[in-house]
Amino acid sequence: MRHALPAVSALALIIASSSATAQDKPDIDASRMNEAVRVLASDEFEGRAPASAGEEKTVAWLVEQFRAAGAEGGGPDGAFVQVAHLSRTRQDGPAAISAQVGDRALVLERGADVLVSSDRPTDHITVTDAPVVFVGYGATAPERQWDDFKDVDVRGKVIVVLVNDPDFEAPAGDPVAGKFDDKAMTFYGRWTYKFLEAGRRGAAGVLVVHETAGAGYGWSVLQNSSAAPKFDIVRADPNAERAPFQGWIQRAKAEELFTAAGLDFAALKDSARRADFRPVVLPGLTMSVDFRQIADGVETKNVIARIPGSERPNETVMYGAHWDGYGVGTPDASGDTIYNAAVDNATGVAALLELAHAFADAPRPKRSVVFAAWSGEEAGLLGSTYYAANPVWPLETTVANINVDSLLPGTEIDPNVVVIGKGKNQLDEVLARHATATGRTLIADPAPQAGAFYRSDHFPLALKGVPALFPAAGFTGASAASRDYVQNRYHQPSDEWDATWRMDAAAADVALIYAVGRDLAQSDAWPEWNPGAEFGPARDQSKASRP
Question: Pairing with 413, which of 21, 108, 127, 251 sits 20 to 30 Å away (CA)?
Answer without folding.
Answer: 21
